[in-house]
Amino acid sequence: MVPLKRRKVVGNYTGAGHGGDNSPTKFPDVLLFLLERKMGASRRAFLSQLGRKKGFHVEELFSESVTHVISENNSGYEVRTWLDSQRRAQGQMMAHLLDISWYTESMRAGHPVPILERHKLQEQHNDEGEAVVFSVPSFACQRRITLDNHNTIITGALSLLAENAELSEEDGRGVAFRRAAAVLKALPEPVTCMTQLRGLPCLGEHSLRVIKDILENGESNEVESMKQSERYKALKVLTGVFGVGAKTADRWIREGIHTLHQLRDSGHALNRAQQAGVEHYDDLNQPVSMAEADAVGEIVEKAVVSVLPGAQITLTGGFRRGKPSGHDVDFLITHPEEGREEGLMSKVVSWLESQGFLLYHKTSRNSYLESANGPARPASNMDRFERCFSIFKLAKKYHELGKDAGPEETKPAGHKPWRAVRVDLVVSPISQFAFALLGWTGSKLFERELRRWAGQEKAMSLSSHALFDNKQKRYLTATSEEEIFGHLGLEFIPPSERNA
């Protein structure tokens, strides 16, 4: 128990003391108040409602009657400072200053659990001058970034701002937010104050403003407002249609089309890809699991080996970086003997069609030409391999290929024994395979930073096809990703740590 100055009722915002909830109170001697600072309004509202349903008395406003003050990611000093900042103090009162863990444990138990030492907030002053100041390399391709990071709320907010910028065709702003998020992902522990970020690269004024808002309030007002905007919602829906980019979605929005239903009723002439995207919209906007990616891989391997024995198939993209799910499945195909891969794609597609696996496909031929003077245009993440963009018809887990799991009457009404899955197939000559594997593994920002490093630091041009030394005017060969990193003077970073 710690003494607190007694004051009149104050709160994060106005409202009824008990939130207007009529749930019966089982523990009248326990009056809880959840501090919104760093927790965020939406999470606070959810947790308050949960507590009331469990029979706890959760006050919407702080008052002298409160017995337990609950906070998240705050020190005892910070909570005490917030309480002392409230005006019109009146005398002294007693209350527990507790971490959110006490609240969640009490929710699980269905009653107030005993207060242990670990539940109590630390009382020491969180001196920003003593906070650890972080340091990270300037390029994302120099950093090891796994799927787990210590600042998910901040990186999630910055990633949403990046996505919104990209959907609005403001690619420069999108890259800036992505780079800022990548810096936060690389930090070894959670950010607790702004001074820790001094001197870090890629953190612009806008990103710092968002980070400060989150540290102080638990969420970014800008991000929350953006998520609720009609334009953002419409862009998400329309670009979720396979074959629809930001430019087309923007044009439709200006025509008053905001939903899939409105698009269907608009009478717009859609191309083949967009027609397939509308028809299979729900499936294509459902994450693809690792198990489903493996199932697709078995089909692709069977198709490839049947037309070219000895060919090699590699799962790339986010799954190669360790992600448990993704929005599509990417495969890189090659053959140990240079030239044997030529003409392979058309044969693979024919086999897949004959077996009924393709709902949609579009192929493009290899248009890469190697010039003695180096790449004809600046390296980019758009390569020129022979490739096939497709939508697979994949049997669901309980409906094996060619074999029903049970009689039809046991299946729910409207049951569909398959789902649509986006699949990209890419064929590479073995001489370019290492570069293709590096490029198609990602992440997109990691690859962008590799190319930026190559150009700015090494006077080289890197693509998914080759690495060209602009000083020596020659191509540098490589048979592995490790060799490419070596040419670039970088420490090798495995796929699982390229999640920038």
Automatic annotation (TrEMBL):
GO terms for cellular component: nucleus. The keyword Cell division does not apply. The keyword Transferase applies. InterPro entries: BRCT_dom, BRCT_dom_sf, DNA-dir_DNA_pol_X, DNA/RNApol_mu, DNA_pol-X_BS, DNA_pol_B_palm_palm, DNA_pol_lambd_fingers_domain, DNA_pol_lamdba_lyase_dom_sf. This is DNA-directed DNA/RNA polymerase mu. Gap-filling polymerase involved in repair of DNA double-strand breaks by non-homologous end joining (NHEJ). Participates in immunoglobulin (Ig) light chain gene rearrangement in V(D)J recombination. Residues 22-120 form the BRCT domain. It catalyses: DNA(n) + a 2'-deoxyribonucleoside 5'-triphosphate = DNA(n+1) + diphosphate. GO terms for biological process: DNA recombination; double-strand break repair via nonhomologous end joining. Its EC number is 2.7.7.7. It comes from Scophthalmus maximus (Turbot).
